[in-house]
Amino acid sequence: MGEHVIAVDVGTGSARAGVFDIDGRQLARAVTPIGLHRPQPLHYEQNSNEIWSAVCRSVREARQTSGLPADAIVAIGFDATCSLVARDKGGSPISISASGKGSFDTMLWMDHRARTESDECSIADNPVVARFGGRLSPEMQAPKLLWMKRHLPEAWARAGNIFDLCDYLTWRATGSTARSHSPLAAKWGYEPVAPGARPDDFYDRIGLSDLADKAGIPERSTPLGQVVAPLSQAAADDLLLSPDCLVAHGLIDAYAGAIGAFVSEGGDYDRKAALIAGTSSCVIRFDRIAETKVGCWGGFHDVALPDLWLMEAGQSASGALLDHLIRLHPAGRSASPPSPMTLLDAIAERLAVEGPAYGAPLTVLPDFHGARSPVTDPHLTGILAGLTLDESFDGLCKLFWRACVGLACSIRDSLSNMPGAGDIETLLMAGGFASHPLIPALYANVTGRTVVTDTTRDSVLFGCALHALRASGLSQKAAGKAVSFNPGRRAVSPDPDAARLHERDFAAYQIMKRHQAELTALYG
Q1: Listed residue (452, 435, 418) closest to 263, CA to CA
Q2: DSSP-assigned letter for residue 243
Q3: For 4-252, CATH number?
Q4: Beta-strand relationship, 73-80 and 246-248
Q5: Which CATH class is domain 319-415+497-523?
Q6: What is the pTM for the complete model shown?
Q7: 133-172 pLDDT, tens per residue?
Q8: Where are the domains of the chain?
Q9: Among candidate residues 512, 506, 510, 505, the one with its CA nearest the CA of residue 357
Q10: Contact call for residues 350 and 397 (beta carbons, < 8 A)
């Protein structure tokens, strides 16, 4: 076997695969889209067989592009969104659609159909709820599972293996039903230190006393840094890899991004936070002490970097919000709607002429899909203020840019609520939302922090690759090289003039938050 690994990242709309060498170089990358089914508001569904097919296609293409033979790949790692995959005891798919029919067996992480159940699961005196900031989100698995039990009793009766998506991928790759500590601690409520115990008392209190049997979940989670098993022959055939290739335990996608971002900084987590910005946005801090706080998720131990506690905050919709606003605007509803990158290129030209105040006083409060932090409330809604009848392309650019400003203000608000926020001087930004240079500069100016990006490799895939190297036993050989090799580091410091103008935007954001609270109280 060789000294290369493949990392697989399954996001909301695509499966990406990257080939990395032991020096941390990304040799090749491939992307395959994944369909999304939205049968009704708040319901987001996918087909896990389609997800696996997209993974296989990306892995095959990435390896072939790299020019490496199959036996050069010593290990493969998977990270994924925290979606829920329903299978029966024999491994066959179970529909999670409200109708109980169809081929969609995967409830996407951003599915909010279980808002009522999330409220009911938020037991005030429970340590599980405390670790989730005092209130469970419908993005967590317990509310989704309770919804499934209530609304799909026939499906629940059949259930025998319900996976977090990253664990589903390792199951497809190996046939093993072992479950990773990363999703079990951070999304299922397992005790935060690996191997964490299953929270049976909590499950009993919320009406899921039969969950261990229906989901096939173990009494304790499996610590990271271990191999699940080698690839099964069937998976090796699907992926065009050797059956000797080792499979690492799965990771939450944002946590893989945090690994990549912090290792690229030499592993230094002091005075830094990772901002993983894609369809949603996650702010992640590491520390050697455990902390919990209202409006933050965590701490969780050993769910990403070894021997460290992780705290998380963020937004339920960031890239998803921007895509939604494009679809809403008349200029975005053409046969060939402009992409976010096209809009940002056009906005860059306008900013060069009009400066940071471009688009004001249009103001966007970005809670269109509820809020994760600084308060967890899936019932919150967004607000647009300052709209006109402008249907032009420039009008769309203004709306898009001011939504970006609103998202940056929201991240600043979330940062201020995190433990140790006053010490954070640097944001390590990764994810698709960070790929245009305007965005890191905007976040630097709004938050007042230096923003660092990696321009030559995908930080999420890099973090997943490092995890695979660790599990395979090559980490000692790889660690020093991977840390030292970072040719694409780009740091953006706040521009004083732009930062002063964005103070006005943050003040407007805070006014909108007060109005949101008043309107919520008015309408109950």
Answers
A1: 452
A2: T
A3: 3.30.420.40
A4: parallel
A5: mainly alpha
A6: 0.95
A7: 999 999 999 999 999 999 999 999 999 999 999 999 999 9
A8: 4-252, 319-415+497-523
A9: 505
A10: yes
